[in-house]
Specification:
alpha/beta, Alpha-Beta Plaits, 2 domains, binds nickel (II) ion
Length: about 400
Amino acid sequence: MSGIEAAIRIEIKEQETEVVSWRRYLHQHPELSFQEKETAFFIERKLQEFGFNVQTGIGGYGLVAELKGDQAGPTIAFRADFDALPIHDEKEVSYRSQKAGVMHACGHDGHTAALLGFAKVLIKYKDQIKGNILFIFQPAEEIPPGGAKAMLEQGILKDVDYVFAAHLGSDLPTGKLSIGSGYKMAAVDKFTITIKGSGGHGARPQDTNDPIVIGSDLVNSLQKVVSRRVDPLKAAVVTIGLFQAGHSFNVIPDQAKLEGTVRSFDANVRKLVEQQIRTIVNGIAEAYQAEIIIDYLNGYPALYNDPELTAQITAIFNQQFRDQVIDFEPMMGAEDFSYFLQEKPGTYFRVGSQKDTATAYPHHHPMFDFDEQALTQIQEAFLEIARAYVFKA
Ligand code: NI
């Protein structure tokens, strides 16, 4: 370990309490996706205090702060997200959400506090940096179209060589770093199907075009897209999460509504599933002589970690963190950092945050919490990346 690196590690340790206090403040004051005005203002003020010129209002409430090193070199970017979820915080802790029905239940408060902490330390070592570091704070990760795309459309990665992000993981013990190449998080699509049949008396089905029966047929047929159409060696999910119809036991309604989600990794599989769903919908509409309208929305693309770069970072992590480094198992969840990775090579890795039962709840659970020690781990991992690419020898 170089002298500078050791010094930075000590500073990261020394400011642990401060970083935790930011996290707790954000946790108490969560804001929903696309509404993170106060959170963005909090981040802006902190960055200014540290001495950064901050660009604000990028693609919504997005912020970017740049650290220009003394000498020219590569530019690397770190991204943290900062939106909360429409979940009621059920934890009994001093830093519980003060907003009814809104909660940081995914750890984005932690990502932001950790990146702020890292920025605060690194700016003091400007003269040791050969290249530039971009600190990107992104709103609205949770709801497509998301905040990433809008920020990228403003050209924030134009001069960036590599991009990085970390996400806390309550399924992994604190200390673990999970990293890997290729597709790691799924592409997510959403569809709404409205069946317009004709209703009537429950005793006279012959006079109707029963949307509940049509909907049931659709639910069953859609299950065959993955089992019969997708290559069994490739992954995909089709889930119907909503089926609404009817209001009385003896009345056949005239309408039914289905909503579902599709997850996949491979872009061709993604296209195939959409096309098959549309074909089935059209076929069933024709068979029953009903009008069926489908509204199909493509959400985030699959997240792809650049193999070459990820191999480099994995080697660096292995050297520094040894047996704490584990393989990143692909997940069917989605993440809009995937847009960053479509634009520039980079890697998205996971940082363990489970210490006990209180920190073991799944993400998006009303009891979700994380071991705040993981915030130090995120910064130490970012430090290793920065050292490899932009520190003077
Ligand atoms: Ni998240």
